[in-house]
Amino acid sequence: MSTESVAIRRKGALLDIVLDRPENGNLIDQPMSDAIIAAVTAIDDDTKLVRIGSSSKDFCKGRQSPMPPQGAKPSAETLRRVVAAPPLALYDALKAVRVPVLSVVRGEAIGVGCALAGVCDVALAADNAIFQIPEMERDIPPTLVMSALIGRVPVKTVAHMVLSRARLSAQEALVAGLVSRVVPIASLDDETDALTDTLLGCSAVTLRAVKQFLHLAPDMSPAGSSGFAAHLAATALSARF
C-alpha cells in the first residue's frame, strides 16, 4: 500500500519505505501513516530488513496533525482517538516489525521525524541531520514522541530534548544515543547501501532472532535473558541443518 506521499517498494528481501512529500518537509499525514503500518505488518518470512528514508533534503519535519478547528471543544476521548492514537499506532507497528528496521536521516528530523528515527533499531544519520522535539514551544507535552523514544534512548536525553527544545546536531545525537552512526552527507547513500548489503547477507531467521532479543531481553531478569539468548541461538542454528 503506497500513496503519492510515501513510496513503498519490495526489493528482494528489502522493504524500502521512502517519505516523498518534499513540498512540506515530509510531514506525516494519516494516509502515509496507514500505508507504512499496512506495509510493515504484512511482511513475509523472506523479508530481512525494513529501511525508512526520504527522497528530499529533509527526513521528516513533523506531523500533519488533525487538530480540531479553533473554537471547538472536543472531549478528551475524541482527542485521544483522533490526535493521539494514530501516531502511537505507527510507532507500535515499527517496534513490532519482526526484522531490523533501519532509518536513514538527512536534514531535519523534527517531532514525529525524530521519533521515527529513534524508534528504528539502527539510525544512520548524515552529518547535516538535525533532531528536535519542539512541542513544548506550543505548551504541548510531547508524550507521544516520548513514548517512541523511551526504552531506546537514554531517559536524560529525552528529558533534555523535550524540556530544552534544543536542536541537536548529528554528532550530538550520536553522543546522546539517539542515532547509531554519523556519516558525511556526500557518502550517505553509499554507506546506506553498504550497511543494507551487510544486513541482507544474513539469513532471515538470524535477523529475526537478533530483533527478538533486542526487543524483549531488556525487560527480562539476567537469568531469563540468558535462557532466551540460548533459545534464540539454538533455534537459529537449527535452521541450518
Automatic annotation (TrEMBL):
Belongs to the enoyl-CoA hydratase/isomerase family. PANTHER family: ENOYL-COA HYDRATASE (PTHR42964), POLYKETIDE BIOSYNTHESIS ENOYL-COA HYDRATASE PKSH-RELATED (PTHR42964:SF1). It comes from the Bacteria. This is Enoyl-CoA hydratase/isomerase family protein.
